[in-house]
């Protein structure tokens, strides 16, 4: 029997709380039709709150139900027909999608039954790394001669699936290799669900690339057998969803372990390894000895403001800011020395060139003059660059990271602090108070960077005023207002080296402690060097991450540390 359905446009509801009765009316005619049109009801409507009042001003007429007007019924019937069509389309699509999902599920179930068997009649494979191109053990196959059968292990770096073939770019930390899977090899469950970063071992024939094709080392591996070692998680957790090239900085830092899987971050780390090694080789060529000073100390080197303090069995101790003082104690018995060790600075300011923990390359030279120290530094920097670029793989990484990189030409520009002050004044670059620079100002990071970028060459900035430098720096005999000190500045980064001669006169050192308000007691071992055969000596410290930021053209030193540590970040 045809029923009556009620619609109140003011207080009705188009949700499950309404049923279309007088006491629980709907809000819209369309909703009422969607719910009841198939029963062929009649529709009664009203506007109980905003509807018309009668001639006496009595609102009672608002409460009267009236049949829905013909025009309203016609208009809403059209809308209702459209709605029905949309519904039909959606359910058709859902059926199709469900069928496809079921089919894919079935295909995957079938794929689980496909088991790859290695063809034992094939030659035993030669194990190689992905960059191995040793022609004495590997021959590339061509149209008329077979290539070497090899075995490689690595991670899926890129993946391209076509109808009959899957192309994989495998990486292993040494190089990349294009791998082609086809035939039965792509019918397994593992192949059908292959994800980036999955680790696998693959065997097959190495062949020369077809003409016009591009792949690393112009070759590709035609697989005949593989095993998946560890499938990488996919879907929402896939690496490409976790880290994206231009992703949010905090997310990238939280996922640094995954960022390191990428080409850019790993290239910087590969260059870092080469640069570290080049420093060691250069120092060895100079007959400097490697030492490992302690990281836990009870003295400061570069001012109390940046010390990390900790409790050492009830005593106050610090993480070292610099190994310099310890290196100085080695000169008498070991000759010139160096270290490559972590230094720590509690730097609360978040700049792009400050880390809380960085790798400090420090050298200390005996029986040297200030000029000799600068010449040595220039040699070390140039030799390290020369050795680094001599490796074609490293040179290629640097080229891709920093296409404009050019080794600096010698001699480096030398500029006294007073000349830098004049230069900054001439170029209207103000000091931190917004005033013209004057003698005695610490040249701030921004001004230093501006000057270095404008001069666009490496600079030895020398002879800083006594007041802005450390307690151990000797005064220049020709101008006692300044010290025999040097900062080496590089375009794009600013200061990468800080060095100086060291006071070797006992009384002068005590005066240095006093000037800086340092209690000489904990420094007794350092002071003793001035009592047991003092010598003129000097040295320097270079921040490896800053050197790399310059060489690899990175925006910040954070990209040049494996797991950067800076204010408030100690994870992962
Ligand atoms: O100029 P600094 O403070 O000099 C010294 O520590 C001397 N005692 C070194 C020595 O003569 N043996 O630091 C030396 C270099 C800087 O030029 C910079 O490259 C790097 O260490 N450095 C930092 N790198 C990253 N983050 C920081 N917070 C750094 N502080 C210094």
TrEMBL record:
The Aminoacyl-transfer RNA synthetases class-II family profile domain, residue ranges: 271-564
Subcellular location: Cytoplasm
CDD domains per the UniProt record, alphabetical: AsnRS_cyto_like_N (cd04323), AsxRS_core (cd00776)
UniProt KW keywords: Aminoacyl-tRNA synthetase, ATP-binding, Cytoplasm, Ligase, Nucleotide-binding, Protein biosynthesis
Region (Disordered): 1-23, 37-63
Domain of life: Eukaryota
Main localization of the protein described in the UniProt heading: cytoplasm
Single GO MF annotation: asparagine-tRNA ligase activity
Cellular compartments per GO CC: cytoplasm
NCBIfam families with a match to the protein in the record: asnS
Designated name of the protein: asparagine--tRNA ligase
Top-level taxonomy: Eukaryota, Fungi, Dikarya, Ascomycota, Pezizomycotina
């Amino acid at each position: 029997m045809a029923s009556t359905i009620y619609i109140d446009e003011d207080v009705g509801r188009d949700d499950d709380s309404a049923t279309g009765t007088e006491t629980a009316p709907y809000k819209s005619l369309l909703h009422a039709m969607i719910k009841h049109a198939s029963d062929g009801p009649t529709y009664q409507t009203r506007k109980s709150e905003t509807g018309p009042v009668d001639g006496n001003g009595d609102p009672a007429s608002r409460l009267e139900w009236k049949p829905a007007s013909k025009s309203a019924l016609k208009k809403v019937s059209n809308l209702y027909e459209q709605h029905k069509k949309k519904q039909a389309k959606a359910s058709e699509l859902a059926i199709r999608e469900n069928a496809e999902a079921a089919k894919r599920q079935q295909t995957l179930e079938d794929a689980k039954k496909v088991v790859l068997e290695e063809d034992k009649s094939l030659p035993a494979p030669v194990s190689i790394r992905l960059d191995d191109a040793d022609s004495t053990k590997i021959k590339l196959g061509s149209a008329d001669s077979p290539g070497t059968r090899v075995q490689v292990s690595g991670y899926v770096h890129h993946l391209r699936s076509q109808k009959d073939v899957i192309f994989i770019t495998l990486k292993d930390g040494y190089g990349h290799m294009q791998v082609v899977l086809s035939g039965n090899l792509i019918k397994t469950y593992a192949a059908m669900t292959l994800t980036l970063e999955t680790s696998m071992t693959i065997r097959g024939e190495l062949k020369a690339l077809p003409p016009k094709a591009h792949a690393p080392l112009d070759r590709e591996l035609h697989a005949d057998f593989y095993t998946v070692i560890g499938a990488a998680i996919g879907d929402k957790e896939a690496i490409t969803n976790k880290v994206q090239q231009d992703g949010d900085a905090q997310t990238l830092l939280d996922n640094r372990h995954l960022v390191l899987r990428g080409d850019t971050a790993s290239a910087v780390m590969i260059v870092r390894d080469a640069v570290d090694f080049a420093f060691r080789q250069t120092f060895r060529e100079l007959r400097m000895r490697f030492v490992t000073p302690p990281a836990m100390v009870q003295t400061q080197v570069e001012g109390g403001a940046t010390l990390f303090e900790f409790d050492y069995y009830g005593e106050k101790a610090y993480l070292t800011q610099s190994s310099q003082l310890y290196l100085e104690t080695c000169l008498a018995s070991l000759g010139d020395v160096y270290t490559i060790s972590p230094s720590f600075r509690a730097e609360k300011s978040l700049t792009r060139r400050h880390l809380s923990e960085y790798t400090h390359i420090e050298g200390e030279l005996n029986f040297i003059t200030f000029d000799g120290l600068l010449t040595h530094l220039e040699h070390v920097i140039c030799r390290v660059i020369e050795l680094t670029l001599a490796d074609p793989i490293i040179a290629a990484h640097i080229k891709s990271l920093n296409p404009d990189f050019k080794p600096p030409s010698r001699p480096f520009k030398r500029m006294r602090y007073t000349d830098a002050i004049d230069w900054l004044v001439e170029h209207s670059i103000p000091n931190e108070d917004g005033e013209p620079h004057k003698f005695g100002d610490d040249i701030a990071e921004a001004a230093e960077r501006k000057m270095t970028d404008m001069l666009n060459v490496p600079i030895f900035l020398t002879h800083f005023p006594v007041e802005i430098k450390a307690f151990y720096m000797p005064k220049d005999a020709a101008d006692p207002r300044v010290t025999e000190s040097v900062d080496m500045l590089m375009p794009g980064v600013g200061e990468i080296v800080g060095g100086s001669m060291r006071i070797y006169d006992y009384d002068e050192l005590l005066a240095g402690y006093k000037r800086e308000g340092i209690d000489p007691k904990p420094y007794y071992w350092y002071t003793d060097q001035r009592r047991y055969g003092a010598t003129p000596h000097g040295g320097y410290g270079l921040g490896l991450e800053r050197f790399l930021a310059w060489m690899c053209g990175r925006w910040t030193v954070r990209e040049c540390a494996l797991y950067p540590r800076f204010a408030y970040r100690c994870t992962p």
